[in-house]
Amino acid sequence: MKILCGYNVNIDSVYRMSGAELSELLESFESSEILDKINSPPGRIDSVSDFAAGLAYCMKNGCGAEWLVFNPSVFEFLKGRYFERSLVRMGGNAGIMANTLSELGASLVVPNVAVPSKTQLSLFSRKSVYFPGSSSAKEPGGDAVMNKVGTPAPGQDPIHFVFDFSEGEGFSIYGEQFTVPRENRFIATCDQLNFRLFINPDFDSYALQHAGEMDGALISGFHLMLEEYPDGGSYLEIVEKTLSCVLAWKAGNERLRVHLEFGHFASRKLACTVFSKFAGVVDSLGMNEDELASFHELHGIPVEALLRMDSEAVGKAASCLASLHGLRKIVVHTREFVLAAVRWDESESCACGCPEGPGLKNEPELSRKPFFSREVENELKALEFGVKSAGTYAASGSLDGRDFVEKGTSGLQESEPGRKELARFLEAFGGESSGNGAFAFRGGYMLCMLPTLLSKSPVTTVGLGDTLTAATFLRRLELDVQA
Description:
Low-confidence stretches: 135-154, 355-362
Distance between the termini: 15 Å
Radius of gyration: 22 Å
Mean pLDDT: 89
Number of strands: 20
Structural class: alpha/beta
Largest sheet: 10 strands, mixed
Shape: globular
Oligomer: single chain
Strand order of the largest sheet: 6-1-11-12-13-14-15-19-18-17
């Protein structure tokens, strides 16, 4: 399989923050300044105190967040204090997905790299990743792939400072004691080019010229966009530019499958704009339960039920959201399970069964028809490969081929909450079990669900959704070609 990966590639600097270190950091600032920002989070980083307050807020509440850094002095502070002591690895949805595809057997993976510095390029897989435009690059299909460049690109490396923290860590906020209620992470993102979904001209040219040879494309990074840019630029211009690229690719290859992976958007306005522009163009969308909840006004399913990963709520919201634009597929990945809503009846416009939509179409025994049996089998196979890959990556911090994944799953356990939600899914939708998962039909959509595989002692919790997405996308492409 030959796959394009755009747009956000960066460096992740992952640091494990202890409660004691947070307490020490907070003592560097006036208490009133930090407490005000904890009570009313700024949502962005213009000063070091903004960073400290954001980290404290997340550790206090056990929640995750990603705030963008706008002050170069904060970048220098973070790099000087934490970079050398951190785990440096591939970051960005597109970067992680590119590596996943390469390690799991894609024949050619072409990523968009905003800043192809020596550090950045060293983090890519050496199996099938190809960087257009370098004099040292070998042609795709040669004996080796290019993983070096002659001259590093100028400009600041895009670094996302990821601060992981563990459940149970104790810390003090100016004398008041707290305990982290749940493991999570706070990300301080220093990434000016990816804020604008910068497209490397070499990638842009290559993608357009070779679109006809590609099997698929994964696009992501839209959540990094800003509503307003300092120079007066518009996020709408960025959306339109990337949309025109995707349309050009598809015009050159009607077989091309395009998947758009969402992220945590700074505003609902941005998220809804991206959804409305791309839903009728891409073949599938991916998101987690938080991102699905942000579309509450479109699907009408209660936010609380989605955030607690209620499988009935997720299934209803995914199928209803997909039906709004006749989207072929939405994949929702949560910590406990993954659920896909896949369109099967092109004649149905919006028969999702949600309170705001038409009633559920009754179509008995669809699973006995050969077409649906094959569709169910292929979708669950693809989801299972994604689940296994993500579980193995969490447990080991790496992927090294399919045998590695299969062996890696032996030490993993199926999510217990995921199994319970599978039972709820079966009851809510009148579904049928299939292997470790289940499926059901709702309106014009087939729902497929599978519990995740979890590690007792994960090496990483970053990039699991991207790993699952890329592995699922690759396997489904393969199964479709085989069919």
